[in-house]
Amino acid sequence: SGIPQIKTSLRGVIMKEFLTYKVLIAKWLGITATIGSGMPLGKEGPLIHMSSIIVTKMGKALSTFNSIFINESKKIEMLGAAWAVGVACTFNAPIGVRNYWRGFFAAVWGATTYRLLLVWIDGVDTITVVFPTSFFVNFPYDPFELISFAILGLICGFGGSFYVWCKTHFNRWANGTKWLKKIKEFNRFIYPGFIVLLISTVTWPPGIGQFMAAQIAPGVQVQELFSNFTWTKENLTVAQNEVVSHWSTQWSGIYTSLVVFMCYQFIFSILASSMPIPNGSFIPVFRAGAAIGRIGGELMHLWFPLGVRYKGKITQIMPGAYATVGAAAFAGAVTHTMSVCVILFEMTSQITHVIPVLIAVLISNGIARLLTPSIYDLVIQTKKLPYLPDLLPSTSAIYEVYVEDFMVKDVKCVYLGMTYARLKELLITNKSLKVFPLVDHPQNMTLLGSIPREELIWLIDKKIGALRRRQVLPSPIVDNGNDKDDKQKGEPLTRKEDIPAIDDSSDSEKEEKAKKEEKKGVKREELFARWRVGKKQAGESSKAPKSPMPERKSASQTLGVKQMAWEEEQMRHEVDFTTVHIDPAPFQLVERTSLLKVHSIFSMLAINFAYVTSIGRLVGVVTINELRKAIEDANSGNPPKKPLRPPPSPLPILAQTPILVRAQSLDPGHQA
């Protein structure tokens, strides 16, 4: 989809790997094939993603936008405008965007350009709405019908939560099934090919497809679901009979076709979205909701064929209105958005049912938020993207929960006076940590700064690495097959650099020679690449932890007893941290920082962790994972448990024993 990644970027964590030209080309070609294939998938996600990529690349290419992309907050605002353009091009809805003022200008021009291209290229007569309707304006619905609209919102709320629940368990099953993983690893085209074959077989019009109006295009299906006449009444016109013929067969009626169509959109959109292709999730759930609403509208007309009487006036039932309300309510429940209301009004160009739509969407959205996450948050949680959920303003825990309640107290740190052996052990046992705090002493724990993992690795390699060994130790035994006498004696061959020579060069020449020797050694970037976290070399055993030092043969073959003793002696030395880059001011929080403030700091500054200090003393660390867990617990009504504080120690009571004090002045004759 791309929406979870853009949603994460809007929170401040810019995911640059998803904003490249390669992704843009893949999305463009992929969404074209997805829409043309007829799969039960949408296009809104990839269009929003492509808009964000174009804005990012345009801002870097044009000098006019340079000042914008220097400022991180302005960069996020530009991504928000790109989001608005994607929504506008998908639904022709320039107003129904998440952030109105930030994206209004871009959304209006995006929607206008998109509709004009349809007129100029596709031959459309004029600019029209996406799904035209013709509801009654004078008396569109009866006040008593608000109860039925509320019940429809209730049904869509539970249905949307059930949809997200099914998708969650299907993804969990697909990712945990070994034979399915083997098929995907063997050939990536087998699984998509099977899904496409299954969907094509089910939707074949002469077969099962005739029970779900598969003979017409998806856009026409939604237009007919929104049609303003009852499909079960008699004396239909020719045009109305043609619409009903699409949703009925000689073996079944309209209710069977509507139920089959709803189940098809529900089930096969989950299967199709599991394929590795660009797709959106909004349109399939929008169609499923329209089918649910149409069923409710037809049943209302069946129960009240003459309409609903209120104060002497009879209001006819319009099943198409129920279809629009159901589409908005079901889509809002799955995506947890309220802007779908405005999007629906813009797609249908009518606001006669604004109150029923708002009531149904509010009810469905509230129920879905209590039961399951949104379809986009589900992907964020599954892929473990660095995204923070919103805090519910009605939750009092955001003011009562402090960072000391959910921070990690067992902090792995480096300290002054630490030996190289202890540092090596710390790096091996904590491979997931990328930054280590620097303190003065393990008991005082006064925070002095932070050091990246790569810098600490470089310190160890500088101490006992290959370049250091070549400078200090003699070369190993070399057998070149030319000198038989040396080979028989088994004595090591000496190198030219091992023979002491008279150096009469100046100090500046010595420095230049030293720089050249360093350039000949192992480059620092190559060293970082060998030590990078999570990347194992081919053939490396995963059972026992590997030493972070460069790989070398056994000591009996190459190093010898002398080299091992030299390494052990070097590793007992204290680490010199003055030669590495130290961040003197890492992000810090105090123990009593509230959950609301921590959430605001992490969101605005786009940081992933912060140290917790008490009067300069390091007492803990909080990462985005602990913060996300604390927010989820607070929103669900189960805030983190507060640690038990020891009672304050009473002040010492002075003994009331009289004390004799003898003072002597400078005058030896005066005593008291």
TrEMBL record:
Tree of life domain: Eukaryota
Subcellular locations according to the entry: Membrane
Annotated region described as Disordered, given as residue ranges: 475-521, 534-560, 633-653
Comp. bias (Basic and acidic residues): 481-499, 507-521
Main location: membrane
Record InterPro entries: CBS_dom_sf (IPR046342), Cl-channel_core (IPR014743), Cl_channel_volt-gated (IPR050970), ClC (IPR001807)
TM stretches of this protein: 146-165, 186-204, 254-272, 321-345, 351-371
Entry keywords, A to Z: Chloride, Ion transport, Membrane, Repeat, Transmembrane, Transmembrane helix, Transport
Membrane topology: Multi-pass membrane protein
One function term, GO molecular function aspect: voltage-gated chloride channel activity
GO cellular component, one term: plasma membrane
Pfam entry (one): Voltage_CLC
Name of this protein: Chloride channel protein
